[in-house]
Amino acid sequence: MAEIKKSWSVQFNERSFPHVQQAFVLPPDRMQEMDPFILLAEDWFKRGTFGDHPHKGFQTITYVIDGRLEHIDNKGGRGILGAGDVQYMNAGSGARHAEEPVEGDIVHSLQLWLNLPASQKNSDPFYQDIYAEDVPVQKIGTAHVRIFAGDGGPMKPLVPFTMAEISMPADGQYNHKLNPDHKAFVYMLDGRCVFGENESVLEKGQAAVLTKGHAIQMKAEERSKVLIYTGEPHGDPIVAHGPFVMNTQEEIRQAFLDYQAGKFGPEAK
């Protein structure tokens, strides 16, 4: 069985308008040890925060907790995500898009940056919108498990990756299956849970890395909601700068040159 390896409390930072509040659930300075995960950002924001911008060399998984998030890309794609919806984006060889709240809304979201192996850094960019009603929910005992990726979930990532949300009532218990070859971490969206046979306690606003194992045991001390992410490490060098994640500093420099030369296409609007 897996156990809690390391846990921490997320530090939330007040920002100026329109980016109301921000936190790194998974800080980017831990990307080397968290392969294939680069960062997990939690944001509260109004329109005018994340207008047209580029990405290259990685994937994003954006989970909308509250509000309506409008997505626009420079290939003609457009859509609106609501609470419980997720968007998977492969930036690959270069994407350019905007992620903005519908006018008047404040969006609360989580965005995971998931690295691509060197062999797929130049893959074709694409988007996949996953709506809450299309996500299978498994009822296991008193737990309700929403599977976004892995085990029949609708997300189609380019790399081995799983994402699940577990909701439990007070005193609920659940064992979540894991791939022992994956890196795994959890984030408490709500409540308070005891994890593993070592009975490590996490509460709302705390995150933790798990040890390797085939499953993680959890018991809810109060009504709780937990996100679990797992991914297969690929061991490639990671160099990140701004919106680009590559394998070398020279590749980062080339990404900036390509963007400035218009190779990512026109503005998303």
CATH architecture: Sandwich
CATH topology (fold) name: Jelly Rolls
- Number of beta strands: 22
Percentage of β-strand residues:
over 45%
Terminus-to-terminus distance: 48 Å
Q: What is the overall shape? A: globular
The helix/strand order is: EEEEEEEEEEEEEEEEEEEEEEH
Which stretches are poorly predicted, pLDDT < 50 over at least 5 residues? none
The H-level CATH homologous superfamily, spelled out, is: Jelly Rolls
Rg from Cα: 18 Å
Count of alpha and pi helical runs = 1
Q: What is the count of structural domains?
A: 1
CATH class: Mainly Beta
Keywords: Iron, Metal-binding
Pfam family, one: Pirin
GO molecular function: metal ion binding
Cofactor: Fe cation
3D architecture notes:
- It comes from Domibacillus antri.
- Keywords: Iron, Metal-binding.
- Belongs to the pirin family.
- This is Pirin.
- GO terms for molecular function: metal ion binding.
- The chain is mainly beta and 269 residues long.
- The chain has a single domain, classed as Jelly Rolls, CATH 2.60.120.
- Helix content is 4%, strand content 52%.
- It is built from one helix and 22 strands.
- Strands 1, 13, 14, 15, 16, 17, 18, 19 and 20 form a nine-stranded antiparallel β-sheet that branches. Strands 2-3-4-11-6-9-12 form a seven-stranded antiparallel β-sheet, with no helix packed on it. A four-stranded antiparallel β-sheet has the order 5-10-7-8, with no helix packed on it.
- A hairpin with a 2-residue loop joins strand 21 and strand 22.
- The longest helix has 12 residues.
